[in-house]
């Protein structure tokens, strides 16, 4: 078995594929359930997610309804992560290559760049800047004079302390990205106990301050429920799941390291469910409790930490928040970006080249300038998320319905210019289905009649794409798809 894997890798290497994109050997697939259990914790407990909880209160739902909706979301997230990562587990192949099976050798570049290039790089830059703001709080607590360095100096609207904090935090994120999954696993092993201490401790602090009953009865000032409560719960579930649209698409970047399917399935399911139970309870208690205690509705965890008198408590909490941002940036942004950019030119670029290119672009887009107009940013990222839901639907339908869980790696790692079963390397059906699903899921932003669908856009996108692709392609025998000569669709 080992000799066969080595021969296979040598064959694909001779076709111009670098080692980062080759199927992992059995010896390289070492991740067990515990590795996946710890992997996503930091991606759940981060500042944007806690701010999102504050947004849920504006819907007028009860705190208990919000908690239950968040917990239910975890099961949907785990299901998609496990199922869309199954191909990576079985074949040890990264997302950039798995995507080829669904969209074609050339066709995979568009959704791949959308996820690993545009969305990942945008989010990487924005998360680095958001994290640098927390880093400034940390430095300011220790060295207050640092915040006045440089006087009136600014570069494109960023003052000297802000620039220094951003560059340092950006560099740390890049170094974690260079290390890939192995370094990330060690990082999260240290991070996870700290998350339980900080966010669990903050929840206990909030309950002790105001009591559990006021927290459960909390409703922000001037808020009334607008709409059917059952539908609003679904809106909350969709919002939480949609945050994972990008990581779910590229799940194979991490499941390719799994020892077997059972290990990644158990690890990811337990890890996400446990993380979201803590997040649901802690998030609601912290936001509601702090708002009641301080007499001001607040959604940002950093605003709460800044009010603390204890230097040690503030320092430790902000440090852990910084670490969760780094973890989120690595798992959701820079690692997928590195693999995807490498896949654009597999004979010339490596994973580390991809990480460096993505990191430099994230600097050039000046994320601090982009955040000056938050409405346009979130509309842009919301649209990208709405596009990635249909991509997941197509990938799932292709792998489970059309290919029946079997992928021919010799076709996947084809010679340059040698297209086996999609005309000119494009799966036209996949693109047509994706466009239809995107229009239906995001059309409500422009067509009032479709507005309810746009509020649950991720679910609509996945379901419509899965159903249409299964309908159009599912009737075609798998063998005939695999053996079609080049030039046929």
UniProtKB/TrEMBL annotation:
Topology term for the membrane: Multi-pass membrane protein
InterPro entries for the chain: NCS1, Pur-cyt_permease, Uracil/uridine/allantoin_perm
Pfam families reported for this sequence: Transp_cyt_pur
Record's subcellular location: Membrane
Keywords tagged on the record: Membrane, Transmembrane, Transmembrane helix
Highest taxon, organism lineage: Bacteria
Gene Ontology molecular function: nucleobase transmembrane transporter activity
TM region positions: 50-83, 95-114, 121-143, 163-184, 196-219, 231-249, 270-292, 312-332, 353-371, 377-401, 421-444, 456-472
Main subcellular location of this protein, as a coarse class: membrane
Recorded GO CC terms: plasma membrane
NCBIfam families: AllantTportGProt, ncs1, PRK11375.1
Family as reported in the entry's similarity comment: Belongs to the purine-cytosine permease (2.A.39) family.
Descriptive protein name: Putative allantoin permease
Annotated source species: Atlantibacter subterraneus
Classification of source organism: Bacteria, Pseudomonadati, Pseudomonadota, Gammaproteobacteria, Enterobacterales
């Amino acid at each position: 078995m080992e000799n066969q894997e080595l021969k296979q890798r040598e064959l694909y290497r001779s076709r111009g594929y670098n080692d980062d994109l080759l199927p992992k050997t059995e010896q390289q697939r070492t991740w067990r359930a515990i590795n996946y259990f710890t992997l996503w914790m930091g991606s759940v407990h981060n500042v944007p997610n806690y701010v999102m909880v504050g947004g849920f209160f504006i819907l007028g739902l009860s705190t208990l309804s919000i908690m239950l909706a968040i917990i239910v979301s975890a099961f949907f997230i785990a299901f998609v992560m496990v199922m869309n990562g199954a191909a990576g587990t079985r074949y040890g192949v990264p997302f950039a290559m798995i995507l080829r099976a669904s969209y074609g050798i050339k066709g995979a570049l568009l959704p791949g760049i959308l996820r690993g290039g545009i969305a990942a790089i945008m989010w990487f830059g924005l998360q680095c800047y958001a994290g640098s703001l927390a880093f400034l709080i940390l430095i300011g607590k220790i060295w207050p004079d640092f915040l006045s360095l440089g006087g009136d100096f600014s570069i494109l609207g960023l003052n000297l302390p802000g620039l220094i904090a951003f560059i340092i935090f950006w560099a740390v994120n890049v170094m974690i990205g260079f290390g890939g999954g192995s370094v990330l696993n060690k990082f999260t092993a240290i991070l996870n106990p700290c998350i339980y201490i900080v966010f669990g401790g903050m929840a206990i602090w909030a309950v002790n301050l105001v009591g559990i009953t006021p927290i459960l009865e909390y409703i922000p000032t001037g808020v009334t429920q607008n709409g059917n409560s059952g539908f609003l719960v679904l809106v909350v579930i969709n919002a939480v799941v949609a945050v994972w649209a990008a990581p779910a698409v590229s799940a194979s970047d991490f499941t390719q390291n799994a020892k077997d399917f059972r290990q990644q399935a158990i690890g990811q399911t337990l890890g996400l469910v446990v993380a979201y139970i803590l997040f649901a309870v802690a998030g609601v208690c912290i936001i509601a409790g702090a708002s009641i205690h301080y007499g001001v509705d607040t959604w940002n965890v950093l605003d709460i930490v800044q009010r603390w008198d204890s230097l040690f408590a503030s320092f430790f909490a902000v440090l852990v928040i910084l670490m969760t941002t780094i973890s989120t940036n690595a798992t959701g942004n820079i690692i997928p970006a590195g693999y995807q950019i490498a896949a654009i030119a597999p004979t010339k670029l490596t994973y580390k080249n991809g990480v460096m290119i993505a990191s430099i672009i994230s600097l050039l887009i000046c994320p601090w300038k982009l955040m000056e107009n938050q409405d346009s940013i979130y509309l842009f990222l919301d649209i990208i998320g709405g596009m990635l839901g249909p991509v997941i639907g197509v990938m799932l339908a292709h792998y489970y319905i059309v290919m029946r869980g079997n992928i021919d790696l010799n076709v996947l790692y084809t010679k340059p210019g040698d297209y086996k079963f999609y005309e000119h390397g494009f799966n036209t059906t996949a693109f047509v289905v994706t466009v239809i699903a995107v229009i239906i899921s995001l059309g409500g932003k422009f067509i009032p009649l479709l507005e309810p669908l746009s509020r649950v856009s991720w679910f609509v996108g996945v379901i419509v794409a899965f159903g249409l692709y299964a309908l159009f392609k599912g009737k075609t025998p798998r063998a005939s798809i695999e053996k079609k000569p080049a030039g046929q669709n």
